[in-house]
Design goal:
By secondary structure, the chain is mainly alpha-helical. It has four helices and no strands.
Length: about 60
């Protein structure tokens, strides 16, 4: 019997891009550079409004 071929999909990628992982330093640094704010400010925004990227960016004034 032939093994089933696994196909790669982008199913979770869009959902992942819509979030900011506050515990991941590289994501915090990226968002800080993108918005021109400090990393602690990004972490504080994530804690305050949740991890949705749109809400975090709105909170940081972008």
């Amino acid at each position: 019997m032939a093994a089933a071929k696994k196909t790669k999909t982008a199913r979770g990628r869009k959902q992942d891009r819509a979030r900011v992982a506050g515990g991941q330093d590289y994501e915090v640094r990226y968002e800080a550079k993108k918005t021109g704010k400090s990393a602690p400010a990004v972490k504080k925004a994530v804690k305050k409004v949740g991890n949705a990227r749109k809400r975090v960016e709105r909170r940081l004034g972008r």
